[in-house]
C-alpha cells in the first residue's frame, strides 16, 4: 500500500502511543513509514463513502 496525503488536508505527525489497526494490518506500518497520523474525524467523508 502506498499512501499520499490528500490535497487540502494538514499533515499530522505521529506522536505518543501508536494504536494498533487490526481492521487494516498495513495501516499502522504505513503511518509509521510516512510519519503521518490519520484521525478518523479528518477522513469521515471518505469512510462513510466506503459503506
Describe the structure.
It is a single chain. The mean pLDDT is 79. This protein has a domain at 25-51. The protein starts with 24 loop residues before the first helix and ends with a helix. It contains two helices and no strands. The chain is mainly α. The chain has helices spanning 25-34, 44-49.
- How many helical elements? 2
Topology as a string of helices (H) and strands (E) = HH
Catalogue the unreliable spans: none
Shape: globular
Helix content range: 25-40%
- Major β-sheet, in short? none
Determine Rg (CA atoms, Å): 11 Å
* Euclidean distance between termini CA atoms: 20 Å
The percent range for strand residues is: under 5%
Number of strands: 0
Average pLDDT rating: 79
Quickly give the structural class.
mainly alpha
Briefly say what this structure is:
This protein is mostly helical and 51 residues long.
Task: Please specify the SSE layout and strand pairing.
Layout: H1 25-34, H2 44-49
Keywords:
about 50 residues, mainly alpha, 2 helices, about 30% helix, about 0% strand, globular
